[in-house]
Amino acid sequence: MQLNLPRSFHLGRTLDAFLPLFAVLLALFIGGFMILLMDANPLDAYRALWEGAFGTKNAVADTLVKATPLLLVGIGICISFRGGVVNIGGEGQMIAGGLAAVAIGLQYKESDPTTVIIACLVGSFVAGALWGGIAGVLKAYFNVNEILSTIMLNQIATFGMMYLVRSEFIDPRQKNAAAPIPETERLPRSLDLPRIGGTLDDLYDFLGLSAADANQWATTLLHNGIVIAFVLAIVVYVLLWRTTVGYRIRAVGKNPRASRYAGIKVEQYTVLSLMLSGGFAGLAGGIQLLGVRHRMNAEGGAIAFTGNAGFNGIVAALFGGLHPLGTIPASILFGALLVGGNKLQRSVQVPSALITALIGLVIVFVVASDIFVRHRSRRRVAVAVSEASAEAAEVRASP
Amino acid sequence: MIDDLITASVLASGIRLATPYLYAAIGETFGQRSGVLNLGVEGVMLMGAFTSLWAVYEITPAGATSYYGPALLAGVLVALLVGLVMGLATAVINVTLQAQQGISGIGIYLFGLGMSDLLFQKVFRGEVITVNGFPKVNIPVLSDLPVLGEIFFRQNLLVYLAFALVPVTWFVLNKTTLGLNIRAVGQNPEAADAMGISVTRVRYFTVTLGGMLASLAGASLSISLVNVFQQNMTAGQGFIAVALVYFGAWRARGVMFGALLFSLVNALQLQVRTKGIDVPDEYASMAPYLLTIIALIFASRRIDQPAALTKPFERGE
Q1: Residue range B2-299, CATH number
Q2: Contact check, Cβ <8 Å, B296/A148
Q3: What average pLDDT score do residues A18-44 get?
Q4: B257 vs chain A: nearest CA distance in angstroms?
Q5: Which residues have C-beta within 8 Å of that of residue B48, sequence separation ≥ 6?
Q6: What are the residue boundaries of the structural domains of chain A, listed by start?
Q7: Would the CB atoms of A358 and B285 count as touching at under 8 Å?
Q8: pLDDT 10s digits, A134-193
Q9: Which CATH topology does A62-350 take?
């Protein structure tokens, strides 16, 4: 049945789309007071933040590098949330992925680099998927709350990684050292993810932009992980909205009981959602390893490797409206905040912990503002239904 | 080897280390019994840990070599106040604004993680400061008992208080009208509402109480157990506290046994490390998390989970 929706519908929609932006502005506003508390000038601080994130080509490159794991974790989160499961296990899944990548890379360091890089990335996806799958099986078949199990699995992955890196995986050169550093060997440079700055410079040349700017992208640390992440965001969009599997994942998330009546095997789709979600987080770990870290190190625990991307990816996905394409700009925004935060610390002596607190506020504001969206859409439906039934009554009344 | 591991002093430290789990998990029990899951406990703990230590540091006279009563009292009060504010904020977010509780909690956690670190950098420039925390209080007669005396009766006030909360919680939840209302709201908010119980008011009460106890849990770390503050010093204990509520099947006694399980493992770990026994540290660290998952599998077969847990309540028109 075609519903004639009132005009206010469009205005409401537009407002809803801007709610996350209001959330960020509100968080930055409150952050201004926190900066004042730190005896710094909020305007100077935010200028430093912007400069740090976008001021130079290096800054932009750093922002994009930081955004890459956020985007990958985020598109996985889109799948799991749409499938009705809350995956808080990104940290552990990233570690599983990173371990798989370093293990495969070290095992086959003599082989053809391109093949090995692909094997590392596939391996990291599989490892993350298996780690997420544990929580999926526990939820689907043992009714264990996935929020709790994924949090537990994060800790188990962290300690497992620390154990492996200290024993089985340790760099042979560290093994006999007096005070061994708990880290693996560095992967051969042939396995570093290719940098894409050179290609970008060529593109600039082609567009005739290079003369205006002497800096070259080629000297930045930008690697092709961001390209992989962009492409996969589109793939996940297609998966969720253009395939039967995606339709079923979303159906199970919306209404498991109705899905079951419709013949969908709800348990299997729950496991699948968590496996896919875990897989993308695992891949984020693999790309972080091949693109940035090149080795696992047990010092500093999980956060030193993941940079909290397992949590921040959730934020990016929520901010992007749990839509893979919306997650692209959202992850760049949060990547920028994180990179800019370091500059904040260096130039105006405001600890980058401020950024962690701000991100926390953004999450709270985004989920708390959701109620306005729900209420408006409910009113919309109510209005639409009453108009439709009035119309139907008219139709019936007229002979 | 076993003799080396399980000594009276290890058991005593196991009892002591249960304190933060107990406060946080009991607070969370109240919230969950009324139908609200608060995942932000970790963040509130960190804020409580920092602010209470700060208060103790500021009020203790310079150069004091032993504890200073008023400072400790102020530390506890400050922690309770901070917990009250953060608990109220959590209630506004989860009850009034009906936010998705699994996510809003992560927000509160990150806020507490960042904010406590920010204040730490601002006030102490990130230096680890030791304060004179709660002293041991020997309970007359009982503390002289062989073995048991050392394990149970030579602890500090915050430890005794944490364990005293267990029967109090049981009593409040099961034997008072307030407890009945809390359980009704968590089990069937519509029916409770029809009976004239204000679902919102009950949930505001439990969530705010949960915030205060979480903050006190943080204080019990920073001014009673280790007497320092460090960035992210709770290291996941707040998340464990949330799981302990499931583990203990939403009952105070079950929560206490869960807390003791974790704290005894922690105490054993310390012992293993100091004795230099050759067991990989990480296995011991991992064990409680594995146990929790296994316990969750069994807990899920029981039907005592509050039926309205994580479901926001909205009055029908």
Answers
A1: 1.10.3470
A2: yes
A3: 88
A4: 18
A5: B79, B82, B83, B214, B215, B216, B217, B218, B219, B222
A6: 1-38+354-399, 62-350
A7: no
A8: 999 999 999 888 988 998 999 999 999 999 998 888 888 888 888 888 899 999 999 999
A9: ABC transporter involved in vitamin B12 uptake, BtuC (1.10.3470)
